[in-house]
Design brief:
Largest sheet: 7 strands, mixed
Number of helices: 12
Strand content: 15-25%
Oligomer: single chain
Structural class: alpha/beta
Distance between the termini: 56 Å
Radius of gyration: 24 Å
Number of strands: 24
Bound molecules: MU-OXO-diiron
Strand order of the largest sheet: 1-2-7-8-9-10-11
């Protein structure tokens, strides 16, 4: 296992997780990477570690450059376990002078690794440390992704280490942006934003402004997932600015589950209504789609129509799952409605409307409900429902 040099003094010493397919509930069809970086300054410095299971891979890459015991400083930009899981073992093996963390990082790491002396020392925005021949400064990036998150900036080499931000779950043996094809990575970058960063979009917008005000203009952006941005770091910054703005688009999702095909038949007619109205529509059965794929498609959607059959006086479990997940992502500016079939108790379909309201979706129609299989009139109501949502989206886009 070899390190990869990314600038004069910085080496990538992370790990590639080719086979992970579920990242705490997020479907990662292309795996991921856990990036860690070794700064070969006069005081060798390790920035972040990796998921616990990949400790050996990280240490082997470090050993290809330097005896790990010569590392004097560790920086932990984020306490989530995919970056700090290997920290206790690394501290034990390296015996650094200090491990720098944010205030919240101190609390989180102390609570995660109880009764262990990890040599933690706190830093805040504007603090700088001398790493011998260069300086690393810190910028707290609260909620990007957790309250503890921070960026580290290697000043002379102009390398910004951004932890989760500007990353993607994308396992690749090609470490740089100019080596990877946009037709593969763009979907994954957008999906990552939708599933990880979307709830904090207002913070992203403010933070990007703050970084500009601070005069940071990094030559290289080195995130902890995916690849390193060396050719065009502005590309991912501009994509984040666009995604954070959540600009409306004439697009809607029809998200549903079905028991014996009745709710799916209704979904087909709602989709037809949206198409008749000129709205781009993606119909997503929860039999076929993963919740994180729905989140990805929701990022640039303006409409969300949800449907469920009734099971044991409630909605289908797969719909409860996806709606709980989407609620947490706090997508703004949606209009929507609900639909579903039932046997003898239609009330749970109305619960879907309440769930939309609980997600701050502007509900534009009463739910369309069908006892057992939908008849011709009900299917026409479904088509009209799609048309109504389409017209409302068009109004909002004027
Ligand atoms: Fe990649 Fe929030 O951890």
């Amino acid at each position: 296992m070899k390190a990869v040099q990314i600038s004069e003094k910085v080496y990538w010493v992370g790990a590639i997780d080719w086979n992970i397919r579920d990242f705490h509930g997020y479907s990662t069809k292309r795996g991921t990477t856990y990036n860690a970086y070794l700064v070969m300054s006069d005081k060798p410095t390790l920035i972040d570690t990796v998921k616990k299971e990949f400790y050996g891979e990280m240490m082997a890459r470090i050993e290809s450059v330097i005896d790990p015991k010569k590392i004097q400083i560790i920086i932990s930009n984020h306490s989530e376990m995919d970056h700090s899981g290997a920290l206790p073992q690394a501290v034990a093996a390296i015996n650094p002078e200090e491990v720098y963390v944010s205030d919240m990082g101190f609390k989180d790491i102390t609570a995660q690794f109880r009764n262990q002396d990890l040599k933690l020392k706190t830093v805040k925005t504007g603090d700088k440390i001398d790493v011998g021949g260069d300086t690393i400064s810190f910028v707290e990036a609260r909620m990007l992704h957790w309250p503890d998150s921070m960026f580290s900036y290697l000043e002379k080499e102009n390398v910004l280490f951004t932890n989760d931000v500007f990353g993607m779950h994308y396992a690749t043996g090609k470490l740089f942006d100019d080596e990877n094809e946009e037709r593969f990575w763009l979907y994954e970058a957008e999906k990552y934003y939708a599933n990880i960063v979307l709830p904090y979009s207002d913070i992203v917008t403010r933070f990007l402004g703050q970084v500009t005000q601070m005069g940071l203009n990094p030559k290289i952006i080195a995130p902890d997932h995916g690849f390193v941005w060396r050719k065009d770091p502005a590309k991912i910054i501009n994509l984040y600015a666009k995604w954070a703005a959540q600009a409306p688009k004439n697009k809607a999702l029809v998200v549903y589950d079905t028991m014996w095909g009745s709710t799916e038949k209704m979904a087909n007619y709602i989709t037809e209504g949206l198409r008749n109205g000129g709205t781009e529509v993606i119909q997503m059965s929860m039999h076929a789609c993963h919740r994180s794929e729905v989140a990805k498609e929701l990022l640039d959607s303006s409409g969300l129509i949800i449907g469920s059959p009734v099971l044991n006086s409630g909605i289908f479990p797969a719909m409860a799952d996806v709606l709980c997940y989407l609620k947490g992502l706090r997508k703004k500016g949606l209009v929507g409605a609900a639909f579903g079939s039932y046997g003898w108790n239609g009330a749970p379909v109305d619960e879907l409307t309440k769930m939309l309201e609980g997600m701050n979706v502007e509900v534009v129609s009463a739910a369309v409900k069908s006892p057992f299989a939908p008849d011709t009139d009900t299917l026409e109501k479904c088509r009209q429902l799609g048309l109504t949502v389409s017209q409302k989206i068009a109004e909002k886009l004027k």
